[in-house]
From TrEMBL:
A Pfam family annotated for this UniProt entry: GSDH
InterPro entries hit by this protein: 6-blade_b-propeller_TolB-like (IPR011042), Glc/Sorbosone_DH (IPR012938), Quinoprot_gluc/sorb_DH_b-prop (IPR011041)
Annotated protein name in UniProt: Oxidoreductase
Taxonomic lineage from the root: Bacteria, Pseudomonadati, Pseudomonadota, Alphaproteobacteria, Rhodospirillales
Domain of life: Bacteria
PANTHER family associated with the record: ALDOSE SUGAR DEHYDROGENASE YLII, HEDGEHOG-INTERACTING PROTEIN
Residue ranges of domain Glucose/Sorbosone dehydrogenase in the record: 35-362
C-alpha cells in the first residue's frame, strides 16, 4: 500500500499556467475533497451537480462550497468501477426540476447499469419521484465495464452508453444488453424509429452495438450526431460516431491486444462491422468528453476535448469536416486522472479528477492568436 500511496499525485493546490498550441491555460481548483467524482452537469444558476462513485450526489457552487449529499438515491452497488456514475438535467428541468442519472444497480446475479429520473428539491437536498427507466439485462458479477454516459439528443430522446461488463464474448449477443448505445424516450419507452423495433431476436432499445466500455459521449454541435469514445483492452481505444443499427465490432475486430499480450478476434476489419474514426495505440484510457463551442478561443470551436485516466492528461482533437485531423496533448504535468470534461456556461472547461481527494478543476483559456 505504501508504494501505491507514494505514486498518487497530489491535488492541484493553486492556479497553474500552461502554454498550449492555441491558448494559454490557467488551471485552478474550484472544489476538493470529492471521493472519486464521476459525473458533472451545470445547473441554470451556475451551480454544479456532481456524482461521487461511492453513491453520493452533491451540489457544488462556483466558489467551491460543497453541499451535504442529496437524499433519496436508490440502492447503489459501489464496487470496482461501479457506483453512481453520470448525471444530466432533463430537457424540461426548468419546469419540473427533473434530472437523470446512471448507476450500478444490485439485484439477482450481481449488478448492472441502470438509469433513473427524479425531481431534485434543492432546498431540502432531496430527490423525489425516483423512477428507474432503463435496466441493463441480465445482471452479472464483477466490477468492470458499466459505461456509462447520458446524452439527450436534439429530438429529446436519451442516449445511454453501456459496457460489456467484462464479458466480451457476449458483446455480439443480440438478446442481452452488453456493449451498446441505448436510445429511449425520457419516460423509458422506446422510440418508434429505433433500428430494431419489431425485429425478431433483437432488443428494441438498442441503437448500436459491438462496443466495449464507452465512458465518453457528446453531441456534435453542428450535426447533432452522437460521438462516443470507448476503452479498448490493451491498445486501440476508439472514437466512434454510432449510427442506427450498426455493429462496431467488439470483440471480433479491434486495434488492441489482450492484457499481457496476445491476439484475439479476427483482426481490424470485417465486412458488416464499422471502423472507428480515430483510435489510440497505446491506450490512453479515455473518460469524459465535450465539444468546445465558446467564442473565448475561436481556434478551438468545434474541437473535442477528452480526459485520460491512464496517461493523466487532457486531449484536444482538432476536427475538420467531421474528421479528426490533429491531436494535442495537454496538462500532463498535473499528473491527474481526468474522469470528466464539461464546458461551463462561462466558456471555461471543467474537469473532474478521479481520486480519493478528487477535485473540480477550472481550465480558463486565453487565445494565443
Amino acid at each position: 500500500m505504501a508504494v501505491i500511496a507514494a505514486a498518487c499525485p497530489q491535488p492541484v493546490a493553486a492556479a497553474e499556467r500552461f502554454t498550449t498550441e492555441r491558448a494559454q491555460l490557467t488551471v485552478e481548483p474550484v472544489a476538493e475533497g470529492l471521493v472519486h467524482p464521476w459525473g458533472l452537469t451545470f445547473l441554470p444558476d451556475g451551480d454544479m451537480l456532481v456524482t461521487e462513485r461511492a453513491g453520493r450526489l452533491r451540489i457544488v457552487s462556483p466558489d467551491g462550497r460543497i453541499s451535504e449529499p442529496v437524499a433519496g438515491l436508490p440502492e447503489i452497488w459501489s464496487r470496482g468501477q461501479g457506483g453512481l456514475l453520470d448525471v444530466v438535467l432533463g430537457p424540461d428541468y426548468p419546469e419540473t426540476g427533473r434530472i437523470y442519472f446512471s448507476f450500478s444497480e444490485p439485484g439477482d446475479g450481481g449488478a448492472s447499469t441502470a438509469v433513473a429520473r427524479a425531481v431534485l428539491d434543492r432546498g431540502d437536498l432531496r430527490l423525489s419521484d425516483v423512477e428507474v427507466i432503463f435496466r441493463q439485462q441480465p445482471k452479472s458479477g464483477g466490477g468492470r465495464h458499466f459505461g456509462s454516459r447520458l446524452v439527450f439528443a436534439n429530438d429529446g430522446t436519451l442516449f445511454i452508453t453501456i459496457g460489456d461488463r467484462g464479458q466480451r464474448t457476449r458483446a455480439q449477443t443480440f438478446t442481452i444488453n452488453r456493449g451498446q448505445v441505448i436510445r429511449i424516450n425520457p419516460d423509458g419507452t422506446i422510440p418508434e424509429d429505433n433500428p430494431f423495433v419489431g425485429v425478431d431476436g433483437r432488443l428494441p432499445e438498442v441503437w448500436s452495438y459491438g462496443h466495449r466500455n464507452p465512458q465518453g459521449a457528446a453531441l456534435h454541435p453542428q450535426t447533432g450526431k452522437l460521438w462516443i469514445h470507448e476503452h479498448a483492452a490493451q491498445g486501440g481505444d476508439e472514437v466512434n460516431v454510432p449510427e442506427a443499427g450498426k455493429n462496431y465490432g467488439w470483440p471480433v475486430i479491434h486495434y488492441g491486444e489482450d492484457y499481457g499480450g496476445g491476439q484475439f478476434g479476427e483482426g481490424t476489419h470485417k465486412e458488416g462491422m464499422e471502423q472507428p474514426i480515430y483510435y489510440w495505440d497505446p491506450s490512453i484510457a479515455p473518460s469524459g468528453m465535450a465539444f468546445y463551442t465558446s467564442d473565448r478561443v475561436p481556434a478551438w470551436q468545434g474541437d473535442l476535448f477528452v480526459g485520460a485516466l491512464k496517461y493523466r492528461m487532457l486531449v484536444r482533437l482538432d476536427i475538420e469536416e467531421g474528421e479528426i485531423v490533429h491531436e494535442e496533448r495537454m496538462l500532463g504535468d498535473l499528473r491527474q486522472r481526468i474522469r470528466a470534461v464539461d464546458q461551463g456556461p462561462d466558456g471555461n472547461l471543467y474537469l473532474l479528477t478521479d481520486a480519493r481527494d478528487g477535485q473540480i478543476l477550472k481550465v480558463s483559456p486565453t487565445p494565443l492568436y
